[in-house]
UniProtKB/TrEMBL annotation:
Single GO MF annotation: metal ion binding
Catalysis: reaction(s): alpha,alpha-trehalose 6-phosphate + H2O = alpha,alpha-trehalose + phosphate
Organism: Bosea spartocytisi
Name of the molecule in the record: Trehalose 6-phosphate phosphatase
Keyword Metal-binding: yes
Pfam families referenced in this protein's UniProt entry, alphabetically: Trehalose_PPase
Phylogenetic placement of the source organism: Bacteria, Pseudomonadati, Pseudomonadota, Alphaproteobacteria, Hyphomicrobiales
Domain of life: Bacteria
Amino acid sequence: MTTLIEPESIHEIRDIAQTEQQIALFLDFDGTLVEIAPSPEDVKLDRRVAPALETLRLKLGGALALVSGRPIAFLDEMLTPYQFDIAGLHGAQIRMGGALRAQSDAPDSLHEALRELVRFANSHVGIIVEDKRISVALHWRLAPTLKDEALDLMRRTAAKMGPGVRLQEGKSVAEIVPANASKGGAIAWLMATPTYAARLPVFIGDDITDEDGFKTVNAMGGLSVRIGADRESRAMHRLASPTALHRILLEAAENGHLSAASFTQG
Ligand SMILES: O=P(O)(O)OC[C@H]1O[C@H](O[C@H]2O[C@H](CO)[C@@H](O)[C@H](O)[C@H]2O)[C@H](O)[C@@H](O)[C@@H]1O
């Protein structure tokens, strides 16, 4: 397993890893719990992971949430029969303790934008439009040479939609999301609730959208962990792959012990 630690963060990580404070665990989904796949519907979750997460959720007094760009309904399907706390659509939806606590409205001009994006996809092989009802993603993983054209279209579309939305770039994807939604905001919201408060936040993610979550947990004195070492990141620590993370989660579920140190050793 490759483990890279930025030199300036070593002390901080050592301090965090030695604390006995109970953690609140926040997990991204794509690229973190599952490997990146050619298209959004191709992802496969190792069947051991959902039961392990349920064991850990109970161990953490409920303080475990998924923080993802996916809709809650999709993640429920992937993790069935378990229902976790979830901040979906990059923070535009939050479900906690089995109840929907926050959900942004779909931007007014989303339908029109969607029509334009579908038109583009229909005339460009390999482009995928993912309609998430409150947000929309345009994927070019299967047509990498169309990246500039697709990104330009998304920039122009988002600009036309106005200040109610923002553009979220990711791995071979750009998404139009409600302007007030962010992963950092969702983590901060959850950390203000009794289940999560007073715990040390640990957030694990892999993509540009997760940088906002890393910033939030760093500011709270928590631990940020990035899956992959392919670019600069605010994350304090790195794990090589979803498989490396699975190993930690499965072992922790087995032995009943999970702390910040679990993610920084090995
Ligand atoms: O916040 P996440 O849970 O990481 O979700 C971010 C986006 O992930 C998905 O797209 C990415 O994964 C796909 C499947 O591996 C891949 O084909 C695509 O290229 C990636 O960008 C998902 O489709 C989006 O809705 C999420 O927002």
